[in-house]
Specification:
homotetramer, 328 residues, alpha/beta, Rossmann fold, 9-stranded mixed sheet, 41% helix
Chain lengths: 328, 328, 328, 328
C-alpha cells in the first residue's frame, strides 16, 4: 500500500516538493524521469533542489514544473544571532539565484499569506511586518539615497475567513495597480514529518498552485494568473493530523510484520479502510486538525526574522547608510 | 486673525466637517450659503448633519459636496454594554439612511484604514477585526442560510509606511477584482478639539478626499476614483499639536485683551508669526506630533465594537440563527 | 491493555476529570468507589459533575479530592451572540455554586495562565484582558458606586519560558501582598478527545495540581500553597499527539480484531511497545507536540468572551449603571 | 515667572533628572549645590550624568539622591542595524558601571512597567518580550551551559487599570518569593521637550519614586520598599500637553517682549493664570493628555530592541554558544 495512494484517499497534499519526491522515489525504487535532484552542502545547512523538468515529472509528483529549493538546517528555529546571520546569507544566495530580476530597477511585491491571529499560520504576516517597504521612497527622498535600493512593496492581506475574498483575487488587484516585476509570496506549510517543522525552508519559482495548500483551496497565485514571475517561500509549521495517524499505523504494522499472519494483513489493508479508521479518531475536525509543537511561537518568530534578513540582503543591490535615516 | 487662515498657514486640515462648518459660521457671523445644518436629538446622542450642497459651499468649507453626519455622545467611549447596544442602534439608523443600497443583493467592501501598530491609528483595522465577512459564504453554504445576509468583504490593507503602496491604489485594485456595490472606509480622524476624541463619530457619503487626512497625503478614495459610492466612517482619536498650540495662544491673548496695549497686539499678530512660534516648540516633529488621551486604547476598543455592531445591524437584512453555525 | 496504563507509559495526564473518570469506569466495568457523578441538563448545555469524595477516589482517578464541573455545549465556540448570552448565564450559575464567598465584601484575584504568543495557550491571558478590574476603585470613587461591586483584581503573569519564574511563585507573591479571599485561575487544557476542543469548560474547586498540566510541570496552585480557596477554570484547546497516536492504533487493532491471528496480537501488545512506536513518529518533539484545529483562534476568542461574561455576572452582586463611567 | 513654579502649579513632574537639572541651573543662574554633572562623549552618543549628592540637592531637584545617566543619541530611534549594535554597546557599558553586582552569581529581575495596549506606554513590556529569561535553566540544563549565564527573570505585570493592583505591590510580592539581588525596571517616560522623544535613555540607580511618574501615582519601587537595589531604565515617549502649552505661551511672550507694554505683561503673568488658560484648552483630559509623534510605534520598537541587546550584553558574564540550543 503506497503512501501516495493513502494521502490521495485522505485528501492530503504535501506542500514540500522534496517530501513528495522522496515518497515517489521510494515507491518507484528508482529515480523519476522528468525530475532531477541537486544538493549543496554548507556548514550550517543542506540545500536540496528538486527540479520538476517537464509535464511528465509534474504529473507524477503533483507539482507544477519548476525549481523547488529546500534549505534544511537545525539552527533555523534556534535563537542564536551569529547562526542566524550566517544562515540568512546562505538563504540570500538561494534567493539571488532564483529571483528572475533583469535589472536593479526591477520592483518586487512581497505578500505574506496566512492568519496573523493563529500562531502556526502567522509566518507570512510576520515576515511582512519585518520587511522594509521602499517603493514609496522613490521620488520622495533624494535620489542618491534610493540608488542602491530596489523598489519593494509588502502586504499581508489576511485569510478568506476574515476578508471574505480569495487571497488570489486581492493580490491580482494589487499587482494590476502597482505592476511589480516579481511577486514573492510567503506562507506557512504543512509538512509530512514533524522533523521538518521549524527546520526547513522551501523556495520555489512556481508560485502557489491550487491543491497544494494547507487547507482552504484557493485559486493559483502564479505567473499564469498574475502575469509576472511568482517566487513562493514556505516554512513547514504544522503536520496534518492525518499524516501522523497514518505514520502511526504504518509504524505499528511494520513492527508487527515479522509475525506471519500480519504479513498477510498488511497486504489486505487499503486506503479507504485507513481513511475510515483515521476519520473516526479525528472527527469532527478531520482535515482541519493540525499537529504543531508547543514552542511554535518561537520557531516562527526566529524563522520570520531570518527570512526577512535574507530577503533584505538579496533584494537591495546596495543600501547606503544614510538611507536608514529615511526609513523609520 | 481667523482660525481658518491660521490653520491654512500651519498646514492643518480639520477632518470633521462639523468643526470646519462651526469655524466658518463663527468667522462669517452668519449662515454659509451652500451649506445647511440639520439636527436630531436622542437620549444618548445628538446627531448633526452638515450638508455641503454645492461647489460654492464646498469651496468655502474645504470639503467635497455631500452629507456629513456627526453623532455626538459621551457614552461612546465608556465601557457600558446597555448604552453600547442603544447607541449602536442609533448609529445603525444613520448608516441605513446614508447607505445607497438598491437591493438586499448589493454587496459591500469594508476597508479599515490606519496602522494597527499605533494605538490611536488602529481604529480601522480593529473594526475590520470585529466584522463578519460573508462574501465567501454565498455558494458555499445552503442558500436558505445566506438569504438574509448581505455579501460583506473586509480588509485592513496597512499604511503607506508599511506597504510602500498608496492605500487608494490597493483598494482600487481590490474593488476592480471584487466589484462591490458600495465601499465603506473606516479611519481615525484628527479633531480640532480634545472634547471630540472618543465621543464623536462622523459618517460621510463623500469618501475620503486628498488633503483631508491626518498626515500622509494620499489619493482620493471616493466614487470618482473607485467607480462606486464610498461611505467614510471616522472617529477623532487625536488632535494636531499645532491646533492645541494655537488654541493656547488665542486663549492667552483673549485673557489679556482687556488691557489696552494688547488690543493692539492681537491686531498685529498674523499666521506666519504664529507658525514661527509654534514650529519652534514642536520641532523636529511639527506636523507629525499628535495629542491624545492616555486611555486612548480603551476609547478605541469600545468605539470599534460599537461601529462593528452598528454596521452588522445596518448591513444584513435578516440574519437567520443557523447562520452563526457557519460563521466561525 | 488499559488506556490508563498506556497514558502512564506515555507520560500523558488528562486535564479533565470527566475524561479520567470515563476511562476509569470503562476499565473497571462499574462505578468507582469514592467518586460520584451528577448531571444537569439545559437546552444549550449538559453539566456533568465529578465529585472526588475521598483519598481513595483521588488515588484512582489521579485528581485531588473536590468537585469538577464540566459544561458541555456545542455552541461554546460558535460566534452567536444570543447563545453566548444564554450559555454565559448557565456558566455563571455554576460559578455561583462553587465560589466559596462568605460575603459580598470577599475579594477575588483572577489569574490567566498560559502564553499569549501561542494561540492555543492564550485562553487565560485573553480572559484577563476582557475582565474588568475593580479592586483599585474602592476608596477612589464615591462609595455608592462600588457598593454592588466585588473587589476584583486580575493578572496574566506569563509562562516559565518567558519569565524564568514558576508561575506558582509569582501568584503566591501577589496573593501574600493583596490577600484576596478567593483565587480563580484560567488555563487552556489538554483533552483526551478532539471532540472536546472548544466545546467544554471545566470548573474545579481544587485549584491546579502538579502533574495535571499541559506540559511544564509546575508547582501546585491550590488552597494548600496559597492559603485561600482556588477555583480552576479550564477549556480544552489541544490534544497531545500521543493521545491521537494511541487512539489510531487502538482503532486499527479494533478493526482487525475479528481476524483470529490478530486477537492474539492485541493480547501481546503492551505499553512500552506502544511508546516505542509512537515516540518514533513524534520525534523530536514527542511530549510537546499538540493537535489543534485550524480555527482555534476563533474558538478561543469566543470562549474567552463567554467566560469573562459569566465571571462578571457571577462575581458582582449588583453593578450600578453609573459605575461604567468610572471603568474606562 | 519660573518654569519650575509653573510645572508645580500644573501638577507636572519631569521624569528626566537632566531636564529638571537644566531648569534648575537656568533659573538659579549658577551650579546647584548638592548636584554635580559629568559628561562623556562618544561618536554616536553623548552621556550626561546628574549626581544628586545629598538631601539638599534632592530637595531642590525633586529627585531622590543617586545617579541619573542620560544617553542622548539621534540614532536611537532609527532602524539601522550597525548603529544599533554600536549604541547598545555604549549603553551596556553604562549598565555595567551602575549595576551593583557583587558576583556573577547575583541574580536580576527585569520588570517592564506600562500598558502593552497603548503604543507610547508599551516600552517596558516590549523589552521584557525581547529579554531571554535564564533563571529557570539553572538546575535544568548541564552546568557547563549556565556557567557564563547570570540568572535573569522578567515580568510585565500590566498597569493598575488592568490589574486593579498597584504595580509596586505585585513586584514586592514577586521579589519576596524569588529574592533577586537586583531589580531593573523599564518604563516609558514623559519628557519636557519633544526633542528627547525616542532619542534619550535615562538609567538611574534610584528606582522609581512616587510623584515622578507619567500619570498614575504609584508607590515607590526602590531599594527601601523592595529591599534590594533598583535600577530604573526609562525612555521618553510622550510630553504632557501642559508642557507644550506652557512652552507655546512662553515662546509667544518672548517674541513679543521687545514691545514695551508687553514687558510689563510678562511680569504680571503668574502660574495660576497660566493654569487657568491651559486647563481650559485641555479640558476634559488635562493631566492625561499626551503629545507623541505619529511614528512612535517605530521609535519604541527600535529602542526596545537596543535596550534588550544592551541588557543581555551587560548581564551575562559570558554566553557559551551551546546555550542558545536550550533557549528556544
Amino acid at each position: 500500500m503506497k503512501k501516495s495512494e493513502i494521502y490521495r484517499e485522505l485528501g492530503i497534499n504535501l506542500d514540500m516538493a522534496l517530501e513528495a519526491h522522496n515518497i515517489l522515489r521510494g515507491e518507484a525504487g528508482r529515480e523519476i524521469s522528468g525530475i532531477s535532484l541537486d544538493e549543496e552542502n554548507y556548514d550550517l545547512a543542506k540545500v536540496k533542489i528538486v527540479n520538476v523538468l517537464d509535464p511528465r515529472g509534474a504529473a507524477q509528483i503533483g507539482k507544477a514544473p519548476g525549481k523547488y529549493i529546500t534549505i534544511e538546517s537545525d539552527v533555523l528555529g534556534i535563537n542564536n544571532k551569529a547562526h542566524h546571520q550566517e544562515l540568512s546569507e546562505i538563504i540570500a544566495e538561494q534567493f539571488k539565484k532564483i529571483l528572475p530580476f533583469k535589472s536593479d530597477q526591477d520592483s518586487v511585491l512581497i505578500v505574506g499569506l496566512g492568519n496573523w491571529n493563529a500562531t502556526p499560520d502567522a509566518l507570512g504576516p510576520k515576515v511582512v511586518g519585518k520587511t522594509m517597504a521602499t517603493r514609496h521612497l522613490h521620488g520622495r527622498v533624494p535620489e542618491e539615497l534610493t540608488n542602491g535600493l530596489r523598489s519593494v512593496s509588502a502586504i499581508a492581506p489576511g485569510v478568506l475567513g476574515i476578508t471574505g475574498i480569495e487571497t488570489a483575487e486581492i493580490i491580482k488587484g494589487i499587482v494590476e495597480k502597482t505592476t511589480p516585476d516579481v511577486v514573492i509570496v510567503i506562507d506557512a506549510l504543512a509538512a509530512g514529518d514533524v522533523h521538518r517543522i521549524g527546520t526547513n525552508i522551501q523556495i520555489a519559482d512556481t508560485g502557489i498552485n491550487p491543491g497544494s495548500g494547507v487547507g482552504n483551496k484557493r485559486a493559483a497565485i502564479n505567473q499564469e494568473t498574475l502575469g509576472v514571475p511568482v517566487i513562493a517561500v514556505g516554512v513547514p509549521t504544522v503536520v496534518h493530523a492525518g499524516v501522523i495517524a497514518n505514520d502511526i499505523i504504518q509504524s505499528f504494522v511494520e513492527k508487527m510484520r515479522t509475525r506471519p499472519p500480519l504479513t498477510d494483513l498488511s497486504k489486505e489493508m487499503n486506503p479507504p479502510m485507513l481513511k475510515m479508521i483515521i476519520d473516526q479518531v479525528l472527527q469532527p475536525y478531520s482535515h482541519n486538525l493540525m499537529v504543531t509543537p508547543k514552542e511554535i511561537d518561537d520557531l516562527i518568530e526566529n524563522t520570520a526574522k531570518i527570512i526577512a534578513m535574507a530577503l533584505s540582503s538579496a533584494l537591495h543591490p546596495a543600501m547606503p547608510e544614510e538611507v536608514a535615516n529615511y526609513l523609520h
